[in-house]
Amino acid sequence: MTYEFGGFRLDSTVLQYDGAVVPLTPKAVDTLFLLVSRAPELVTKDEIMKAIWPDTFVVESSLARNISAIRKALEDRGGPGPYIETIPKRGYRFVAAVNAEGPPPVLEAPAPPPASRRWVGFVAAGLMLVAVGVWLMWPAPEPEPDPAALIGRYLLYKATPADAQRALDTFEQAAASQPKSAAAHAGLAEALLLLPHLALEMDSPARAKQAAETAVKLDARLGAAHAALGAARMMVDMDFRGAEQSLNRALELEPRSITPMIYLPRLLSAEGRLEEALKVAQRATDLDPVSPLTGVQLGVVLYQQRKFDEAARQFRSVLDRERNYTLAHYYLGLTSGFLGRFEEALAHLDRSELHPGVLRTDRAWLSLLQGDRAPAEAVYQDLMEAVKRRDIAASAPILAAVMLGRMDEAFAAVEAALRDRAPEVFTLRCDPRLAPLRQDPRFHDVERRIGTGR
Known about the structure:
mainly alpha; Arc Repressor Mutant, subunit A; Serine Threonine Protein Phosphatase 5, Tetratricopeptide repeat; 3 domains; 3-stranded antiparallel sheet
C-alpha cells in the first residue's frame, strides 16, 4: 500500500517528497505509516509503542521524540501542515488529506521490523561528551575478527551522526554473520550507546546493554567487551561504580587499549573528578597522538576545567589534521564563546553541522553572553511548550533555564534527567555553562544522586 499527501509519497519502507527520499529513520517511517494507514483515526500511545517497539521497554518520551522528528521532516518540506495532531494523554492522529493506492490497508499494527532496523530521534538539550571506542591494531583475543567489525570501529571513530548510523548498520551485519564474535557485539553496544550523545536516540537502551553482556559472555578476556559493558552500565543504568569496575577490568586485560580510556574521562568528569579525567585523557592521547577523537576528548576535559586557552589550542590541533571533524568544531565553538570570540564561535558551531535544535540553544547562549536575552527566552519558551506536548524529554530545558536564571525550572528539569537517566546527567557537574546550577544549595542533593541510578 502506498499513500500520498501533499507532495509526499509513503510506503512501508520509505517516505519521499517530490521524488526525493526524506531521510527518516526506519522506526520513524514505521510510525508515520501506522498513523497514515489509520488516518483520520486516533492511534493511542499504547498501540504505537506495541507496534513499533514490540517486546521492548521504551519510555514514553522516546515516542514523543519520534513524533517530533516526523513532524520536523514533514514541515521542513511540505510546510506547517497540520499533519499530526496530538491528543493529550491519549495518542496521535494523522489529519492531512490522504490518497491511498493499492490493496485496502490492513488496520492491524504493522509487523515488527527486522532486527537490523532501528530509529534515531531528536534530543533537544545540549550535546554531551561523546563516548565511542576506537579500534587499535594490537593483537586481540579473537584471532580472526570480522572485517565488518573493523569497519564499524572506523566509522565510530569519525563520530558524526551519519557515520554512527552507518557503524550501527555495520555492527549489526557483523553480529549477524558472526554471532559468536565478541568484538562485533561489543561494537554494536557502543554504536547504540553513541546515538543519544550525538543528539540522536537509540531504539532501546536495554538492547545496548544486552549486546555488551553478550560480548563478555562470548569472550571474557576481550578488553573491548568489558569496556562496552562499562559504557552500558554508565549510560543505561547510571551505575558509575559498576561502570568504573568494568572499565578498569578492560584496562587490566588490554593496558594499551584506547577504548576504556575514551569512556573513563566521561565517567570521571560526570562525578566531578576532573583532575583524574585529565590524566586518563592525556594518557589516551599519548597512546594515540593522531586520533582526532582522543584529541577532542583531551580538549573537552580542559574546557570543563575552564582552561579555555589550552582547550582552544587542543581543538585547533585536531582540526589541523582533520579539518571537518564535527566534535572539534563544536567544542571549539563553545570554547571560543567563553573567550569572547563570538564570530569565531558561531562559525565553528555552524561547521559542526549538528542537530539544529542543539545549535539553536548554543547560539542563544552566545547571544546572551553578548547582552541579547531575546533568543534565549524564545528557545526556553519553545522547549517548555514542547515538553508540555511531550514532544521532547522533560530534561531538555536544563541549559536554557540556567542561562536565564530560572533555577526552579532548571531543578525541575534536572529531576527529570535523574529520573529518566537522561544524557544530561553527564554534564551537571562539569559543564562550565551550568556553573550557576552548581552554586545553588539544592545541587548538593543532586551530587549525591548522580551515578547511582536514583
